[in-house]
Amino acid sequence: MKSATELILEAAAASLAGGTAAEGRIFRDRADDIPADDELPCINVVRGEVGSSIFGQGATRNSCNFKLQICVKGANREVALDALHTSAHGLLLSDPTLLSLTRSLFCAGTDEPEHFSGDPTVARMTATYQFQTLTRAANLASAP
């Protein structure tokens, strides 16, 4: 059985699969830090923190986040990062499945673009998305 949070992460990755420049290169919790050149641009969907509080009789309110690790290659890497994030953001916030599983989904911010892999044309930026869910206190997979 999957938790409500994991179902949301899967829905986020599925939402991004067909509508950005990273089409076909959407990863879920990819562990290696440096994608190969033929995998760029790409987006890695990574689980973030989950905090919970009591919400009525037998229910729990979960404040959660996930991160989009957005990677690009090119001379105008900041422009490419912004464009890829903008298209990903639009897909996430218009996806009916994702929106039905979450409450208050929003982009909480991005970090500063960074170079990595020793190649000055390759850059990564992380965008953090926050949301809330309600679950049964005894079962993280079901709504109250």
Write a brief caption for the model:
With 144 residues, the chain is α+β, with helices and mostly antiparallel strands. The protein has three helices and six strands, in the order αβββααβββ. The mean pLDDT is 88.
In sequence order, what are the helices and strands, one letter per element?
HEEEHHEEE
Instruction: Characterize the main sheet.
Output: 6 strands, mixed
Overall average residue pLDDT: 88
Q: Structural class from helices and strands?
A: alpha+beta
- What gross morphology would you assign? elongated
Which residues form runs of ≥5 with pLDDT under 50? none
In whole angstroms, the N-to-C terminal distance is 16 Å
CA radius of gyration is 16 Å
Helix content: 10-25%
Give me the number of helical elements.
3
Share in β-strands: 35-45%
What's the β-strand tally? 6
Descriptive account of the structure:
With 144 residues, the chain is an alpha+beta fold. The chain has three helices and six strands, in the order αβββααβββ. The chain has helices at 4-16, 77-92, 96-101, and strands spanning 26-28, 42-54, 59-73, 103-110, 114-116, 119-136. Strands 1, 2, 3, 4, 5 and 6 form a six-stranded mixed sheet that branches. A hairpin with a 4-residue loop joins strand 2 (42-54) and strand 3.
